[in-house]
Amino acid sequence: MDRNPPLDRKPVVIFSSLNLAEAHLVHQALRQARLKATLRNALRAPLMGEIPADDARAEVTVAPEDEAAAQAVIAALEAQGQGDEWACRDCGEANPASFEICWQCGRAHVP
Hints:
Elements: E1 12-17, H1 20-32, E2 37-40, H2 53-56, E3 58-62, H3 67-80, E4 86-87, E5 94-95
Antiparallel strand pairs: 1-3, 2-3, 4-5
C-alpha cells in the first residue's frame, strides 16, 4: 500500500507567517470550521535569525478540495479585526472591534 498521496492531492499552503501566534489562530479557525488543516514548521518559527526567514515561516496547509472554504474562513477572520472600536456597556472601556468580550470587565459585547 502506497502511503504517499497522489501528486494532485498535495496539501496547499493556505497561510504562512513568521508570527507563530497568527499561524495557530488561523489553524484553529480552520479546525473550528471543520476543515482538516495542518500546522507545519511550528518549531522553526522561534529560530528566526538563526535560519533563513523563509525556512522559519509557520505554514497552515489544507487539502486542495478545501482551499476555497479555507480562504473564506481566513477572509472572515481578517475582517473580524476591522471596524470601529466599541464601548463596554458596563464599564465604558474602549475595546478593539475584534474583541468579543470587554478586556477590562469581561462582559460580552452586544452589538
